[in-house]
Amino acid sequence: MKRRLVSLIVALAIVLIASAGSGLLYRKDADAAPAGFASPINVGCYIAAPNQCRIHVDPFTININDGAGARLQQFTLYANGSPIYDFRTDVSNPPGLDYSPSLVAQDFAATCGTTYIVNMIAKDTTDANPLNYGQTTAFTCPTTVP
Amino acid sequence: MDKGLRILTVALLVVAAAVWLRASDPVPAVAATDATAGALNAGCYLATPTVCKLRVDPFAVQTFFGARLEGLKLQANGQTIYDFRTDVSNPPSGSYVPSRVKLDFAATCGRAYVVSLQADDSSQPSFTTIAQTTVFTCPQGRSEVYVPLVTR
C-alpha cells in the first residue's frame, strides 16, 4: 500500500514537472485580452519641458456592438489605474456607430521617469458594466532634457 | 511493485505525449527584415525667447511579413525623448503613422542634435535604429537677467 502510494506520488510529480516544462500548465497568457470589442490604443510619453512630461494617445476608435444596436455611453482612459480622461456621451443621442474621439489639445500630464500602462475602459448599452477595450504595454517617461 | 511500475510507465507515456504535442506547435515564421521608416525629418526652434523645442515631422513605420509593431523610441543624441508602445492585444502591422505630440519635445538652446528613431516589432528581440536625421543646431536662446532698479 505504502509502495503504491509512493509510486503514485512520484508519477504525479513527473507528470507535473513535464507539463510545466512543456508549457501546458503554466502557459503565460500572451495578451491581456480585451473584455469588450477590441479597440486598440497606442500611447507614449515624452518630455515637453524640464520636469514636465506628457502622455500622448494616438487617435483610436471605440468598436461598439453596433450590429446589436448598441450605443456608446462612456469611456475612461487610465494611467496606472488612475483616470486621466473621463468621457461621457449625449444622454439623448449617444453615438450608435464605432466612435473616434478627438485628441485632447495638450496631451495628458505625466511624471517624468515613471513607467506607465494605459488602458481604456468603455461601456456601450449592451455591456452590463464598463469593460476593458484596449491596453498598452509598459512605457517609461524620459527623465531629462537632452 | 508491478503496479507501481505500470503507473510509472503510464506517467512517462503521458509526459512523452505532452512533449510531442508541444513540439508539434507551429513555429512562427521570423520576418526576414526589420521594420523600416520613411525619412525622419526634425528640427529645433525657439518656442519662447528662452525655450527651445524639437519638432519631428510625421513619419510612417512599415513592418513586414506579418510582424507587429510593438514600440517606438525617438532619441535625441542617444537620449530617449519619446517612449511609445502599442496595444498589447492588437498591435498594428503594415504601415503605421504615429500622430504628432501636442507640445513638441524639450531641447536645450544652442545645442546640436541628431534625432533617431528606434523600432521594436514582433520579429526582433529588441529595439533597432531605423531612421536618423543629420545634425542640426537649436537657436541660441536669450538668457534674461533681472536687474532691480532702485529709484529715488
Q: What's the layout of helices and strands?
A:
The complex is a heterodimer of chains A (146) and B (152).
Chain A: H1 2-22, E1 43-49, E2 52-57, E3 72-79, E4 82-88, E5 108-110, E6 115-116, E7 118-124, E8 131-135, E9 139-140
Antiparallel strand pairs in A: 1-2, 2-5, 3-4, 3-7, 6-9, 7-8
Chain B: H1 2-23, E1 36-37, E2 42-48, E3 51-56, E4 61-62, E5 69-76, E6 79-85, E7 95-96, E8 105-107, E9 112-113, E10 115-121, E11 128-132, E12 136-137
Antiparallel strand pairs in B: 1-4, 2-3, 3-8, 4-7, 5-6, 5-10, 9-12, 10-11
Sequence of strands across the biggest β-sheet of chain A: 4-3-7-8
Query: How many β-strand runs of chain B?
Result: 12
Proportion of residues in helical segments of chain B: 10-25%
Second rung of CATH, namely the architecture of the domain at 36-137 in chain B? Sandwich
What is the count of DSSP helices of chain A, taking H or I runs of 4+ residues? Answer: 1
Number of helices of chain B: 1
**From the coordinates shown, what is the CATH architecture of the largest domain in chain A?**
Sandwich
Uncertain runs of chain B are 23-33
Keywords:
heterodimer; A: 146 residues; Immunoglobulin-like; three-stranded antiparallel β-sheet; 9 strands; 32% strand; B: Immunoglobulin-like; four-stranded antiparallel β-sheet; 1 helix; 12 strands
How does this model look, in words?
The complex is a heterodimer of chains A (about 150) and B (about 150). Chain A is an alpha+beta fold. Chain A folds into 2 domains: about 1-30; about 30-140, Immunoglobulin-like. Helix content of chain A is about 15%, strand content about 30%. Chain A is built from 1 helix and 9 strands, in the order αβββββββββ. Chain B has one helix spanning about 1-25, and strands at about 35, 40-50, 50-55, 60, 70-75, 80-85, 95, 105, 110-115, 115-120, 130, 135. In chain B, the strands form 4 sheets. Chain B has a 4-stranded antiparallel beta sheet, with no helix packed on it. In chain B, strands 1-4-7 form a 3-stranded antiparallel beta sheet, with no helix packed on it. A 3-stranded antiparallel beta sheet of chain B has the order 2-3-8, with no helix packed on it. In chain B, strand 10 and strand 11 form a beta hairpin. The radius of gyration of chain B is 27 Å and the shape is elongated. Chains A and B meet through helix 1, strand 1, strand 2 and strand 9 of A and helix 1, strand 5, strand 6 and strand 8 of B.
